[in-house]
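Tokens in:
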């Protein structure tokens, strides 16, 4: 699988942990705080999560970790310089982590084509600002089943994914969603607020 295709899968998996769910997959991560904003254009959700995971990869130069979660899935994590303990971590370390993540789902302008790009962005929460990689992805709607609350999307490389829409606010919009429309996903990768060895 190409790195770009894998990023497409990670984005939908990341959004799945918030207000969508990839069909057949459930998220078991405990959440401490969720902020949700709904508008006619779509929905934004920010989340502060606490979880215990195992370090599977470390990129010291970019201050990035890959965490293996309790369900076996892997998640990239940005670690700001103000978060202590990063240099002491080793592959295989079991850690307690608090991290922020954020998603926005909205309709792309008429005539848009599926695209994907990344940039360093800034995510702000009530406790201040933290920096993280911001990924934007637009995907074409292939099929909608309002009765089952599912949508099938085609990504920039033609990848197909079916998701279950869990948010009641977004479920209400499914009847107006049509094949051929393009939906925009903006996702800020997980950014660590604190990391410490698990007891």
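Residues out:
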């Amino acid at each position: 699988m190409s790195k770009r295709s894998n990023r497409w899968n990670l984005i939908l998996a990341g959004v799945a942990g918030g207000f969508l769910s990839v069909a057949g997959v459930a998220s078991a991560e405990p959440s401490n705080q969720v902020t949700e904003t709904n508008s006619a254009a779509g929905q934004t959700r920010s989340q502060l999560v606490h979880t215990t995971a195992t370090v599977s990869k470390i990129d010291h130069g970019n201050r990035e970790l890959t965490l293996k979660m309790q369900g076996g899935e892997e998640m990239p994590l940005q670690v700001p310089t103000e978060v202590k303990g990063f240099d002491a971590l080793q592959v295989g370390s079991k850690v307690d982590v608090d991290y922020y993540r954020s998603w926005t789902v909205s309709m792309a302008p008429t005539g848009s084509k599926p695209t994907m790009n990344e940039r360093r962005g800034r995510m702000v929460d009530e406790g201040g600002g933290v920096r993280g990689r911001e990924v934007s992805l637009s995907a074409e709607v292939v099929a909608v089943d309002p009765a089952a609350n599912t949508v099938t999307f085609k990504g920039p490389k033609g990848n197909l994914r079916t998701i279950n829409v869990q948010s009641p606010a977004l479920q209400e919009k499914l009847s107006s969603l049509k094949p051929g429309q393009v939906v925009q996903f903006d996702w800020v990768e997980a950014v660590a607020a604190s990391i410490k060895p698990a007891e």
